[in-house]
Every structure is written in C-alpha cells, then in structure tokens.
Design brief:
heterodimer, A: mainly alpha, two-stranded antiparallel ribbon, 22 helices, disordered C terminus, B: 327 residues, alpha/beta, 2 domains, two-stranded antiparallel sheet
Chain lengths: 524, 327
C-alpha cells in the first residue's frame, strides 16, 4: 500500500504541475488549469460560510469532503501537492523520527486553533485562510519561486551550452521546445519574492524539526479534514502477533500512533500513508487495514480552553484589523485584473493562489502579488504593476483560471472594453512636457481601436528663443481602458511619465458607470 | 536613362497603334483607327533599330519595381522577375535574414504586421534561389508568442521552410554606429552575420514619423531601450539604418494602415492597394511608398533626412521605376 501511495502521490504531483504548465498562452481551456486548486477542501467550507451555497464547480473538493469521514485524511497523504513536496524535502534534509520530534506534539492544537480562528474571522467577512490553504501555498510557491528559478537555471544553462559550436543547433532546438511548452516567453520576475520564498522555505525547512511539521501542526485544511475523520471507518487493525516493537510508532509520518498504545490510531491525524504496515517486520506482519461498521472515535486535540482562547484571540485580531489606518495614498494604484469583483468581495474570495499571476507572467509580469499597500489583507492579492508589464489587449486569461471566481471570466470583446484604470500624464516627467521634444511612444503603443492617447501640435519656445513644434500627448478618458502599455513602454529610465490609477475602473458585477458628462473636447 | 525612354516610347506607339488591343476590338477597327495605326507603324518602322537594339542587349535593371493589383505571392513573383529574379540578389549557400514586421498581436487583416503569405512566398523564393537557411525574426512590441502566432507569420514562414525564432536576449551585440546622435547601439547578431538581408515592412500610418516603412522596420533588430530612439527619432533612425542597410527592401502594401497606427485595430483604417514595392535601396523604396499615402517627401522627415544624408543608393529625382499593373 505504501508503494501504491507513493506512486499516486507522484502521479498527482505531476498532474498538478502539468496543469500549472498549461496555464499559459495559448490556453485552450479544454482542460481547466485551475482544476487542481479546486481540490482544496477549505474552499467549499468558507464559500459556504459566505453565501450558504455549494458550487458544483468545486467538485474535486466536494468528492474529497464526502469521502473523508469514511477514509480519513487520505487527501493529505495521497493527493496534496504541498504534502508531497514536504515529503520530498523531508527526504532531502533527513527529517528526524518521532523519538526526536515527539516534543512538538503539543503544537498539534495549533492547526485547529488556526482553522477556528479563520472561521470566526470569516463570519465577520475577513478572509485570511487563503494564505494558509495548502493548494494555494503550493501554487504561490510554484509561481513566484520555483518556476522562475527553474526558468532562470534552464535558460542560462542552455544559452551557455549554445556557445559550444557543435551543440548550438541541438540545444537551440531544445531551447525553443522549452520556450514553447515549459518556460515562459520572458523570465518572470515577481515582487514579494523574498516573503513568499521565506514562507515556503519555512514550511519545507520545518521538516528538520519533525516529519510533516506543517501538516501535523499548522495546516487548517488538515485540521478540517481531521475534524471530519474522527469516526473514520477504514481502520488500522493490529493483530495479536504484535510484539510492540514500536517501529510503526516511531516511523509514523504524522505521529498518529499514540506512544504506549500502538493498537490505536489518532484518526484526526492519520493521513493513510500506510507506512506503519510497510515497516511492520515481515515475519510479524501484524498490521492490517479493514472497514469497520462500528468505528471507534478519537477526539481532536483541541480542548475547550483552547477554543475559548482562540475565540478571544480572533476577536482581538478582528479588532486590530479594523482599527488599523488604511493608507489612502496607495489606494489608487491597486489596479486589479479585468473582471475582478468589487474590491471587498474580491479580497474575500481571492485565496492568493497567484494562478492569475502565473498565466499573466507569460507576459512578462503585469500582475504581481501585491505587498501591504493599504492594509495587511492586501498582501499577495494580484495587482497590476504596469511599469513592469502591461495588460495585453488581446488577452483575457486571468479571468479564465481563477479557481474561486474572484476574477470573473470576461469574453475577449468585453474585456477589451472594460477599463481597469485610467492613464494619467505626469507632466513634470513626460518628455514632451518636461523637455519640449517629441516622444509619444505611449501613443504609438496604445492598442484601442481609436487611440486613447492622442496629441496636439503646439509651438514651444526654446531656451535660445527658437520655436519648435512639439507633439504633446493627452489621454481621452472615455477611450482609455487602463491597460498600462503606455506606462510599461515609457522610455524614461525610472518612474514613467504616464501612469495608471484605478480611476474609472469597472469591476465585474458592479453596475455600469454612468456615461461621463458630455463635454466638448478642447481638441475637437 | 536613354535606353529606358526608348522602350517607353515604343510602348506608347504600340498602344496608340492599337496592336495591344484585344481581338474583339481589332475586328471592329474603324478606318480612322486604321489610318492612325498605319501612320504610327510607319514612324515605328523608322525607329525600329533604335528601339529594339537595346532590348537585345540585356535590359538594364530598374532601381525599383512597383507592382499592383495581385495577391501577395503573385506580386512578389512579378516584381522579382522585373528585378532579374531572386538569383541576382542571393547566391547559393547564403544565410538570408527575412525581416518582416511581427511587432503586434494582431491578425493580418488589421494591417499591423507584414502579410504572412508574402513572407512565406519570399522564404520560398530565397530557398529556391539557393539560400542555405532563411531566418525570420522580429523583436516584437507585444508578447512575442502572441505576435508570432496571431500575425500567422510563424506558421506560414515555417511551413515555407524558414527558421523562425523568437529574439534571444543574449544575441545582441553592441554595434558601432558613429552617427551624429547615436554612437553605438545593440543590434541582433543573426542580422549582422547574415550574408543577405531582406527587409519586408508593411506600409503603415505612424504618428511620430507619419508613416512607418523600411527604415523604421529595422528597429526590429535593435536591442536596448528602443523607446529612447523616439526622442530625436529622425536623426537616430537614419544614423542606425546607415550601418545596417538591407540587401533588398520589399514594402508590403497589399493592405496598408492609414490611421491609428502602428497598432491599428480598426478595420475601417485598413486600405487595400494590393501593391508591392521592391528595391535594393532602402530609402528609394520608402520614398516611393510615400505615394501610397499621398505624402510628399518633405512631409516625412525620416525619408527627407535619409536622402539629405545620402543614405540612398539611387538619386530620387532620376529614379528608374518599373511600374506594373497586373490583371
């Protein structure tokens, strides 16, 4: 069984990674790239709290939730890609056995506390669970850390190999193959890289403390599934032949076999990895697994006192989140992807998985995991950083891959007419205004069928008294969709002479903006 | 030049004499026509040796060919025939770079990118003429994968046998320009190392320089921050173009974009002259293409400046243009 489990783990990991890889242009949508994110057992729970409905789109998670009371936390042991990554990391850095890591057992309650805390906050419409969702963490780490890093190494290695003359042709062939199917067209660069790398690094590094440290002590999805599997029917049966060698106990990935009571299993912890059966000495072979219609119950490691403290802590957290000052200055630069729900709803629904960032990153990085811009909860929401990359006119992919529909899918035609912001000139920087000489790179790149940036010819008096006719650009509010290509392509070295703000943005589900009051354009 | 005017005169005589008319018309030939043609034939007869002698000696190749009214591939074949075939530009075993405009993520009918059928036909011509490899690339403005796909240039050029690749950032080399305003600029290595270069721009409106043609198309092999070129554009582009002149420039005017360029996006701005201009001289090709937009050379600084600085191979005033209208 343990062998089969390992194969299934690898198959699921490969499946999830391949879904990650197809999330790029050209994206057919025949296989939904965000499918694997919808395996997350937390999404149905919290969505149900939000609007008391269960969406069938989340079918993978629903199947898992239905099966868990019978099978236990098989998702953690067999399917979860973060779990598999953690297992691999544990092998690499030699995770200690339970004899050593036993002292962390008292932290077990933490995951239940976190789950309860997340639930309580969610009741007050503060959604922080997305940061801790294992699928979200996996995708976030892949998007921001591993994939760009892998690209960089592969790219540099291959380009270096092409310098060797006889390798040039085959390596470039390989390179093109890689570029078309695996690597992004351009190296992705993400902001928040340090923190997201630290986050995943800590999760993987905690393997040095105990095996599956994250899954044992912190993961709220594990807590949720553990809560559901208290009465699981698929049980580990230890036969009379057991000499109590304690091997299964020390080798248990989750320390789910109580010390001194090897015949029982902590059902809220066991992840069905079947290592116990595999390490049971072959001569003895005392461990079998069976269905039992009258299963025994193991309570979760969460006392009433801990519940009270968690509740108090959550109330304080909620209070603190409410009394913090919101930085209004930064509000207008929170440009969200086209089709994003209104800001509050968007922040509630978004699980910070970075799938939209991933599919946008093939574009060179317009969407970025945002920093703490106005409040703490802005962290890792996708924001368009136009100076780094722009919203491609003929692209609507981010909306197609959002697992929670925080970004609604828009038809391409609709997306091309949905403003996500508005461009403004900074006339102290913009070359024609600041230096009285032609540039209009912004106008050149403006993609709308009727350019949103136009220019007027005006004479400028130069310092030596001469007159020069200069093209002075300006933005037409009704035509600009805030795609930001003007900001990306502005040739100034640092800050651009044109920038996009959330002004004039149209969010999905929000009533259409009233038409701007008709006013005669000064330029005809 | 003398030879040319003779040929032209002969053409005019033949036309007036009715010899070029279709059979139907000749059946209905009237007396007056007959007299006229008889007279013309008499004059033609006396001129005969002067007219046809130069034709037997190899006809001089025109400086440029302007062909209109045909499909892209047909236009190309006709134009190359006038130019003495692709073989007169490409030698056996040459590495040829075909540089179309793949700059934008637009379908061909929007006239923002070079016609893919023309590029494919051109690739085929090069290979038939004995080119070893034909490379096609462009440094795009939008996402390269999207541009290469949606312009259909990648697909069609590849099936014609070209080596179509995205720009690889590590293959730019700093090239000494030593111009008035630009001293050096990174240029794509494959372009510099090619034996022959064929520049295939599409003729488009462009608000900075009125129109974008052959010279501006060369920006697609330039690295660095190209936005910087736009400030003092004319001088810079002429400076850089001087050092990287192509073997042949073919201006795709099958469709042209007349407004909202160079990105376009509105089919109402696309016109269909179904024309192709070919010249071994970059500036002459651009100069001729101004006609497409009804522009005069003094309205387009880039071309005027290039002529002023002698970037042209042929004198624009005495340019020998072969004009063809296919039927």
């Amino acid at each position: 069984m343990a062998k089969l489990r390992r194969v299934v783990q690898i198959v699921f990991l490969a499946f999830f990674v391949s879904l990650f890889l197809i999330a790029r242009y050209p994206y057919s949508g025949n296989v939904e790239a965000d499918l694997f994110l919808r395996f997350s057992p937390l999404i149905p729970l919290f969505h149900f709290l939000q609007d008391f409905s269960l969406s069938l789109v989340l079918w993978p998670a629903l199947i898992i939730l239905v099966a868990t009371p019978f099978l236990g936390r098989f998702f953690c042991g067999w399917i979860c890609p973060l779990g598999t990554t953690i297992d691999a990391a544990g092998r690499l850095i030699a995770s200690p056995s339970n004899r050593v890591s036993d002292r962390w057992e008292k932290l077990r309650f933490l995951k239940f506390a976190l789950l309860v805390g997340c639930l309580l906050l969610a009741l007050f419409s503060v959604h922080v669970w997305g940061y801790l969702d294992p699928l979200s963490i996996f995708n976030r780490a892949l998007t921001v850390v591993f994939y760009p890093l892998g690209t960089l190494f592969a790219d540099q290695a291959m380009l270096a190999a092409t310098k060797v003359e006889f390798l040039e042709t085959p390596v470039f062939f390989l390179y093109d193959l890689f570029k078309t199917h695996i690597m992004p067209e351009m190296q992705a660069h993400s902001q928040q890289l340090f923190w997201i790398a630290l986050f995943i690094g800590a999760i993987l590094g905690a393997e040095k403390l105990s095996r599956r440290f994250w899954c044992r002590n912190i993961c709220p999805a594990g807590a949720w599934l553990g809560f559901l599997s208290q009465f699981r029917m698929f049980e580990r049966i230890v036969g009379e032949a057991c000499p109590v060698c304690n091997k299964c106990q020390t080798e248990c990935k989750m320390n789910a076999i109580p010390r001194g009571d090897v015949k029982h299993t902590n059902k809220a912890e066991c992840i069905d990895c079947f290592n116990c059966g595999a390490v049971c000495p072959p001569k003895v072979n005392a461990i079998t697994y069976r269905w039992r219609w009258k299963p025994y119950h193991t309570p979760v490691d969460f006392t009433r006192r801990q519940l009270v403290r968690t509740t108090a802590g959550s109330a304080v957290a909620l209070g603190l989140l409410s009394v913090g000052l919101i930085n209004r200055d930064a509000k207008d630069r929170q440009v969200r992807p086209p089709g994003a729900l209104p800001e509050d709803l968007f922040a509630d629904k978004c699980i910070r998985c970075q799938e939209c960032v991933r599919i946008c990153a093939s574009n060179g990085g317009c969407l970025q995991p945002d920093g703490i811009r106005t409040t703490v909860l802005d962290l890792w929401l996708p924001a368009a950083v136009m100076r780094e990359g722009y919203c491609e006119f003929n692209c609507n992919l981010c909306g197609l891959v959002c697992p929670t529909d925080a970004i609604m899918p828009l038809a391409l035609e609709t997306k091309q007419h949905t403003p996500i912001g508005l461009a403004h000139f900074d006339k102290d920087l913009c070359i024609p205004y600041a230096q009285n000489s032609d540039c209009i790179v912004c106008e050149e790149h403006c993609p709308t069928a009727d350019k949103a940036i136009k220019f007027e010819l005006k004479p400028a008096t130069l310092r030596d008294g001469g007159i020069r006719i200069v093209k002075y650009p300006y933005v037409i509010r009704d035509l600009c969709i805030g795609c930001g290509i003007c900001e990306t392509k502005c040739p100034l070295p640092g800050q651009a002479g044109i920038f996009v703000t959330t002004e004039n943005q149209r969010r999905a589900g929000a009533p259409a903006l009233p038409p701007a009051p008709a006013q005669a354009s000064p330029y005809g | 030049m003398k030879d040319f005017s003779y040929t032209q005169m002969a053409g005019r005589f033949l036309k007036t004499s009715g010899l070029r008319r279709s059979d139907n018309e000749r059946v209905n030939m009237k007396r007056r026509d007959f007299l006229l043609s008889a007279g013309a034939s008499a004059v033609g007869g006396t001129l005969f040796p002067h007219v046809f002698e130069p034709l037997f000696a190899a006809p001089p190749r025109p400086h440029a060919v302007w062909v209109e009214n045909g499909e892209p591939a047909v236009l190309l074949t006709a134009a190359l025939k006038e130019m003495g075939g692709m073989g007169s530009f490409i030698s056996r075993g040459d590495v040829v770079v075909v540089k179309p405009n793949v700059g934008w993520d637009r379908a061909p009918q929007f006239a923002a990118t070079t016609n893919p059928d023309l590029v494919a036909a051109l690739v085929q011509e090069c290979l038939t003429a004995g080119a070893k490899t034909v490379k096609v690339f462009d440094r795009t403005c939008n996402n390269p994968l999207r541009c290469y796909t949606n312009s259909q240039i990648e697909e069609k050029a590849k099936s014609a046998g070209a080596d179509v690749t995205h720009i690889r950032e590590n293959r730019f080399v700093t090239k000494a320009i030593n111009g008035e305003t630009v001293k050096e600029w990174p240029v794509y290595r494959d372009y510099l190392e090619a034996d022959k270069v064929i520049n295939v721009p599409i003729a488009k409106h462009h608000s900075l320089c009125r129109v974008t043609l052959g010279m501006k198309n060369l920006m697609g092999v330039m690295g660095g921050n190209r936005g910087d070129i736009h400030n003092g554009f004319t001088r810079k582009i002429v400076d850089i173009s001087r050092t990287i002149l192509p073997t042949l420039t073919i201006i795709d005017a099958y469709r042209i974009l007349t407004a909202n360029g160079p990105v376009g996006g509105n089919l109402a701005h696309v016109k269909h002259p179904r024309t192709l201009i070919i010249s071994p001289c970059l500036v002459s090709a651009d100069y001729l293409a101004l006609d497409l937009f009804g522009l005069k050379v003094d309205q387009v600084d880039v071309v005027a400046d290039a002529l002023k600085h002698g970037l042209n191979k042929f004198d624009s005033k005495t340019l020998n243009v072969k004009r063809l209208r296919l039927s």
